[in-house]
Amino acid sequence: MRSKFGKYKQVVIKLRKKGKTYGEIIKAIGQNISKSTLSLWCNKIYLTSEQKKTIDKKIKNNCEKGRAVAWAVNKERRDKYLKSIFERNKYLAKMLKDKDIAKITLATLYLGEGSKCCQGSLMFGNSDPNIIALFLKLLRFCYNVNETKFRVTLQCRADQNIKFLEKFWANTTKISLNQFYKARIDPRTIGKISKKPNYKGVCRIDYFNAETFTDLMEIGKILYNG
């Protein structure tokens, strides 16, 4: 290393005295000298407080740029990865057009997220609009649903706009606002600011039909009993 880059030592020292960062020095001389070597050559150089501040600021800015570049690279890699997974599984959506497969999917979804204690009705809640929409899509496809037997209850934070949430969930569920119960506000959130601006609260769907509930429970038993 010494014989190869030794001739650059005085140039490096001169640039360092001008307040250049090691990254700037490497770029200026066009040689890939390790920063440990540069540090050894420059360890006795006196830098003014202003030069030190300038160097620290440049290093900080370079780190921020580096993180931004790394984030962009990782995001691109992640997006490609997710796209590849989507491409190899997208055919599954067509399978839900088969009512038997759709019913199995619905029963599995309900077993995971639905209430099993109210035998006279279904009770299904989630904060994810996509999960709620999927549940209702499958339910309406698999059964002869009576739309008047739906009820919706929103559970939200104290600082949220209830009218806005009701319109949002009415559009998501395709259930009339007339079938919405009074929203329930979590008392623990009073006086606290929501940290998640996109949070739309929890939407609970009640469907008053004992036969549908029993049907899904029996399908569940068939599934987990093998």
**How many domains?**
2
Report strand order across the widest sheet: 1-4-2-3
Largest sheet: 4 strands, mixed
Pairing-aware structural class of the strands and helices? Answer: alpha+beta
Termini distance? 68 Å
Tell me, what's the shape?
elongated
Compute the average pLDDT: 90
Under the CATH scheme, which architecture of the largest domain would be assigned? 2-Layer Sandwich
State the helicity in percent bands. Answer: 55-70%
| Rg from Cα | 31 Å
Task: Please tell me about this protein's structure.
This protein has 226 residues and is α+β, with helices and mostly antiparallel strands. The chain folds into two domains: 2-86, no CATH class; 94-225, 60s Ribosomal Protein L30, Chain: A. The protein has helices at residues 2-5, 9-17, 22-29, 35-42, 49-89, 92-95, 99-113, 129-142, 162-173, 210-225; strands spanning 122-126, 150-156, 184-185, 202-207. It is elongated, with a radius of gyration of 31 Å. The protein starts with a helix and ends with a helix.
Please describe the topology of this protein.
Elements (H helix, E strand, L loop, with lengths): L1 H4 L3 H9 L4 H8 L5 H8 L6 H41 L2 H4 L3 H15 L8 E5 L2 H14 L7 E7 L5 H12 L10 E2 L16 E6 L2 H16 L1
Parallel strand pairs: 2-3
Antiparallel strand pairs: 1-4, 2-4
